[in-house]
Design brief:
21 strands, globular, Alpha-D-Glucose-1,6-Bisphosphate, Chain A, domain 3, 18 helices, 6-stranded mixed sheet, 514 residues, 3 domains, TATA-Binding Protein, single chain, alpha/beta
Length: 514
């Protein structure tokens, strides 16, 4: 299943004791708090430490007290090495500031934080996770009362406050966990039952239960495990097997990715290789997975092997539209780097198409306004209106299981869609670069390309500069975005032409950057 390169790479198990010590006593000066598209992340130690967690929690406390937000704050995280400790530290700081805290005694998926906020049981959350990043990484996300990722106005304020507290840690208040519990400031809660029960609003579990084949589900060592277990039990899904219940903060049981690192990425063929093997052997007709915080999905099928996120998004959108699952919604939503096949689906079904910058936070207003049949991004995130304002990998896996049970192999369904609307060729290439080049690309404006009339033999129809540079052509597009966390330029391209044209687009995009 692995490429020759991946097969020769050595997996180095992380030193958990060293990382724990780094978390509490960094050997280098901790970096400033910096929120990306979804929170502050870094390697345990200087990149993310106990001080980062406490400073961010104190910043959130200050924000809530300033705005007179007195509702409970849900605190937790996924199954990473220091997620539980991060949650405890945050809870102790919030409680010391007199704010009520809900601290469940289990790992919590990212979409469940959103669900609890939208259900009114919490007014905001602090979520300790670094998504599918390598196990030595850690992060912390803040979601306000809309349930979605905080917007830049909020994150800028939290960054400012947090960095002030990083510089003056004596100003951070804290109270021992047990004392806070005794005083009623920190309470436990059942976060499984409400979420699992509500899934039946959109997912037809009867169809899954009566499918003529078996399903495999892999939580990839993450927080979704007890939720999948509860789903199987509640809805009597005897044909759904959880193929791995292993949880280990080293994630050593996950096959290494293309570069030798462990990434719990459900859209990569390397971590997903055991599931691909299951469907290729015919043991299961469908295999689904979600990453450690369950905000991303992945799936594999007998006919398609690993299904690319763009393909799955189109199949889900088409199914939701045809079966009128999201009644009254008027649009499909996608990020800048996501397939334009969704545009053709929207147009054919008389729906609007919203193209937003990269980051699920840009979908939040539309999801709250019941606008989207589906909002999705090429990095395997999706949700629907009246559900969560965060990406939900559990929901996606369940929906894909229903689709497979009802209409057949996901790969076949995608082929039917492309036969009707055209077959896109799509790729993303990461180009190593430096901070200077990233800054130059970030500063580019649409006006800088006013003299550009043709790329790769196609007429330029418009240029967008809201998140990198995206050049729209007659039947193609290219997008160049500097990474916010790494020294790379992300070059995306898609064409409804040939694979050769796709390569030409990538070549032309790289020329434009020089």
């Amino acid at each position: 299943m692995l490429s020759p390169l991946a097969g020769t790479l050595t997996k180095n198990k992380i030193d958990t004791e060293k990382l724990k010590n780094e978390f509490f006593h960094p050997s280098a000066t901790p970096v400033p708090v910096k929120f990306g598209t979804s929170g502050h992340r870094g390697t345990l130690g200087a990149g993310f430490s106990a001080l980062h967690a406490k400073a961010i929690a104190q910043a959130v406390a200050k924000l809530h007290l300033e705005q007179n937000l007195t509702g409970p704050i849900l605190v937790g995280g996924d199954t990473r090495l220091m997620s539980r400790e991060t949650a405890r530290l945050c809870a102790e700081v919030l409680a010391a500031n007199g704010l009520p805290v809900i601290l469940p005694d289990m790992a919590i998926p990212t979409p469940v934080f959103s669900f609890e906020i939208l259900s009114g049981r919490a007014c905001a959350c602090l979520n300790g996770t670094a998504s599918h990043n390598p196990p030595q990484d850690m992060g912390l996300k803040y979601n306000p009362s809309n349930g979605g990722p905080a917007d830049s106005t909020l994150t800028t304020k939290i960054e400012t406050y947090a960095n002030e507290f990083m510089a003056n840690p004596a100003q951070i208040k804290t109270i021992p966990l047990e004392e806070a519990r005794a005083r009623g400031l920190i309470q436990n809660a059942d976060v499984i039952t409400p979420y699992v029960s509500a899934l039946a609003k959109y997912i037809d579990f009867e169809k899954i239960a009566h499918a003529p084949f078996k399903f495999a589900v892999h939580p990839l060592g993450g927080s979704s495990l007890p939720f999948y277990q509860a789903i199987i039990e509640k809805y009597g899904l005897k044909n759904v097997d959880i193929v791995s219940t292993q949880q280990d903060p080293t994630f050593y049981f996950i096959p290494i990715d293309h570069d030798g690192k462990i990434r719990m990425d459900p859209s990569s063929k390397y971590p997903m290789s055991p599931l691909i093997e299951y469907v290729e052997k015919g043991t299961y007709g469908f295999a689904g997975a979600s990453d450690p915080d369950a905000d991303r999905f992945g799936c594999a099928t007998a006919k398609g092997g690993l299904i690319l996120p763009n393909h799955a998004l189109c199949v889900m959108a088409d199914y939701l539209i045809r079966h009128q699952k999201i009644k009254g919604a008027t649009a499909l939503g996608r990020t800048l780097g996501t397939t334009a096949l969704l545009d053709r689906l929207a147009q054919a079904n008389h729906l609007d198409l919203d193209e937003v910058n990269v980051g699920f936070k840009y979908f939040v207003p539309g999801l709250l306004a019941h606008k989207y049949v589906l909002a999705g991004e090429e990095s395997a995130g999706m949700s629907v209106s009246d559900w969560t304002t965060e990406k939900d990998g559990i929901f996606a896996v369940c929906l894909l299981m229903e689709i497979a049970a009802t209409e057949g192999d996901i790969a076949t369904l995608y082929a039917q869609i492309t036969a009707k609307y055209g077959t896109p060729q799509y790729t993303r290439v990461d180009i190593p670069t430096d901070e200077q080049t990233k800054a130059r690309v970030k500063a580019l404006k649409a006006a800088d390309f006013a003299a550009l009339h043709q790329v790769a033999g196609e007429k330029v129809t418009r240029v967008r500069d809201t998140d990198g540079i995206k050049i729209y052509l007659e039947n193609s597009w290219i997008l160049v975005r500097p990474s916010g966390t790494e020294n790379i330029l992300k070059v995306y391209a898609e064409t409804f032409g040939t694979p050769e044209h796709l390569q030409e687009l990538i070549t032309e995009a790289q020329k434009l950057l020089k």
